Amino acid sequence: MPVWKLHGNGRTVEPGAVVRPDERLNWPATIAVGVQHVVAMFGATFLVPVLTGFPVSTTLLFSGIGTLLFLLVTRNKLPSYLGSSFAFIAPVTAATASAGMGSALAGIVAVGVLLAAVGFIVQFAGIGWIDKLMPPVVAGAIVALIGFNLAPVAWDSYQQQPLPATITLAAIILFSVMFRGFLGRISIVLGVVVGYLVTVVLQLTTGEQLIDFAPVADAAWIGLPEFEIADFASPGTWSVIAMFLPVVLVLIAENVGHVRGVATMTDASVNRSTGRALIADGAATTLAGVFGGSGTTTYGENIGVMAATRVYSTAAYWVAGSAAILLSLSPKIGAVFNTIPPGVLGGVTTALYGLIGIIGIKIWVDNRVDFSRPVNQYTAAVSLVIAIAGFQMAWGDFQLGAIVLGAAAALVIYHLGNLVARLRRTGADDGGPIPAVGQLGGDPR
User: What gap in Å lies between CA 193 and CA 367, rounded to an integer?
Assistant: First the structure.
């Protein structure tokens, strides 16, 4: 069992101080912080299986197990919760429709194995090669195209129940701008609750069955989650796996960003755990995929809780992971989440998928990508149109979907375009970040 040093008096965090990963508050306070992490991760984590048709309880189980595994692999030095990754939604949805859930799980396993392999390389060779392979314009494009590719899925759900969908979407936006701190960060969860209650009221007033509560009544309070084994034997599995591979690039970006964020707020030495973080997330994703859970990633929601509380203790994450495992052992909880009506899902996914796209655009903004350069223009433009339009290519039974085609286009256009432009000295290549704009007017400083 890991041992933590007690921070200060164990009850409070002094102004300007933080509770480091190897420290903890007293156990009642640590448990309270751990519960906050469970609440923070819950909304996003349950949405992925609901949207993809995976069992919610199974996803929660492997989310909790994955978190504990992450803490072990990173030697209890890196605080993180591993929740369901939204990057898997598009390939899982497409794979399940074309080849079944078993093949989709095989794709998740393939991503996990590849991510762990990248982690081993980073552990021994450093992370510089990733920055060269996936510079900001490419990384932003890949993250953005995964979100925008899902737009038709959001519309399919939205149009089934337009009124609840619109109210859900409006509530999410309103809560995000009306509340500060923790409540603002869980605006999506609050919006789902509002949309759900509105749908219940509509069902009571109109008599139309919008939600079926029978499965909730039939479900047991305590029981094991449903397990499904990844299927590598079906003929369509290997063509399905190809559409999952770009997800690896997203998970790398998320994990690296998480490590750097924690290092900035605690200790620069945390950056040394980058390789271990990738290995751990890869192992957790592989384990989840083998037995029927969603692929995992580090969670920004939990970074928000740490920033708000200034508690970076890994002890809180042992509490959170254990709590998720306990929640997963109630089939009734999973049944409740499976009753979320399509209109509510349509409203939340309209916001959520768009936000995934905006995260990619934020990568461009944060790194001041110069879009006056043709290489950067076409890297972003072509990959996004491929994703939004849903391009596909097929060779017999082997198919490549829009996500893999868009990611491949971004990588090829950027690297090949840069090579040609630099050989020809045309100035069309990526010249690096735009210089910061100075003040306008007045005496120079």
Answer: 36
